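Lay summary. Proteins are chains of building blocks that fold into shapes, and those shapes determine what they do. In this project we predict the shape from the chain. Here is one chain we studied, written as its sequence of building blocks.
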Amino acid sequence: MTALDLNRIRAEFPALAGDTVFLDNAGGSQVLKRVADRVSDYLLSSSVQLGASYAASVTAGEKVLAARRAVATLINAPYDEEVVMGGATTALMFVLTQALRLGPDPQIRAGDEIIVTETDHEANIGGWMRLREAGAVVKLWPVNRETLALDLADLDLLLSPRTKWVALTWASNILGTVNPVAEVARRVHAVGGRVCVDAVAYAPHRLVDVQASGADVVVFSFYKVFGPHYAVMWVQRELLLQLPSLNHYFIGADVLPYKLQPGNVNYELSYGCIGIADYLVDTGSALGSDGTPRQRMQAAFDAFEAHENALAEQLLAYLRSKPGVRLIGRPAADDAQRVPTISFVPAAVAPEAVVRHLDAFGIGIRWGDFYAKRLIEKLNLHERGGVVRVSIAHYNTPAEIDRLITHLDEVLP
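And here is the predicted shape, written in a compact code that computers can read:
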């Protein structure tokens, strides 16, 4: 495999020219210049309402439609009409869960069962919990406290003929663990249920393939994937057609995806997202791939994964050498079952103190629960203030990890 040209990669991200070491990427990645350029271009040349007959409006509509098609390619959606975009993953999840309870033929009725996990960000729990107001029964898929994994045997005990939905994260934003979503989907579909996958912590590190996932819904935020503060929710077409319109009364249930985009999409941010797909295709080409756009994207992500695994192992090896540090998640980056989101808890130092020490050296990391509050409470870490989290992206360098380790060593016993 050809290695990443980090000089070329980093030149795509203007913020990386500064002095800050960005290692809080799971909270928000840096933004590609080509994304910002597209946002600017739209605002300065195409900022009109869509749907009119005059040329500028027609051009603007073409740009927004091109964005939807680019996102469909990015996630391997069979139809671009399945691509619902909105302000954030949390907002899109509330749209979905409310749509399930509304309309002349609600998808959720009293007694229906929903399974959520103890490892998810609250974005993929809170909306489902509110469906208890419609009479749904919500069950918790517990994390194994020894392995910190979601055991499939535990899922099997929760599944029943009344299971309508299972909601889980593709990769934990604290543990870094990659979950076997395709196998989960197979088991859930076998009892007649559907699967909703939060891919927020997965999408920056692996190429999302909604078809291969087996899921019925996949959602993630572009601002974690080198783009603007915006998000996408893919909904399988048959299901999407069954959902009621949450838009104006004259927007019918067959108007896809507009019916789940009240007020329409954000035009300029949508258009900016084309830059993410272009960057991935161009990166794959630079690595020697000459296949389809998806194949070139895959080549880019294969290189990202190899590079990120090396950086993650660099940090994990250091943390494993510290007897007073507890790793929260898989202890090594030697397989495909973790992303480079690394959490730990020092025995003798508060997580906040570690982070504030690093602040003084221009190294951006973070402490807390990262909205995976249920996991932090289950692990009895909330009284300590949560965990220290270091989250690596493909544009980080070995020298940056060395700098991090140097200053961690000043505060970790």
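What the prediction tells us: The chain has two domains: 6-31+293-408, 36-277.
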